[in-house]
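Model it.
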Amino acid sequence: MRVGLRERVGDEWKTINYIPLPHGVFAQLPVFTVLNYGLSLRSILLPGGQTDVALGQDGIYCIDSRVSELGRTALIESGAYFLTFKHHTDHIDVDITTEAPVDDMYWMFPDAELAYMWYAYFCSTTGQTLIQEISMLVQTDESFGYMLSSVRRRVLDVKNEAQLIKSVQAADEAYIKAVTEATRSWKETVDSLGAQVMPPTASIDIEDYSDYKKEL
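Modeled.
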């Protein structure tokens, strides 16, 4: 069986045909998807089995044509949560917000529990490694978003879901506080060192120059 990927790049359709694998490889995949197959070619086994929940079951992709604009608007107005992905050279920023993104590619969720579970997943070291590898399988952000739909998570009980939200929020607040304090300390140190290197400066009153006064 041949497996491949076809995506829209600019004005053209690009096709990637994956190399065929022995049937034994298919038997080792807990769930067969194009994503699982593509990652297996990179010697990566995507976590999750049939009883785990896929991102595509939890959320709505920003360009999913199966959801009408009216339905999307209604979900946003009812208080949806958004998970955004922004590519950089060496990493992918993952952020969670209640404001509908304008430019970034995103997944949308009807409640906080689902959004925070996936936020924790993709911000973790393993999650970052996986989405980096997934991004290498495709050429566009749109295709990257679609491929994420096959990523799977564990099923948590209600109590653990609520605790996860509190823990993630506390970790984010601690991170922001630490970065703010470190930035302030760095700035104070550099200002002090810079003052030791920089020659003394004096202010210049431009009005003391006759040429300037003549122009006026």
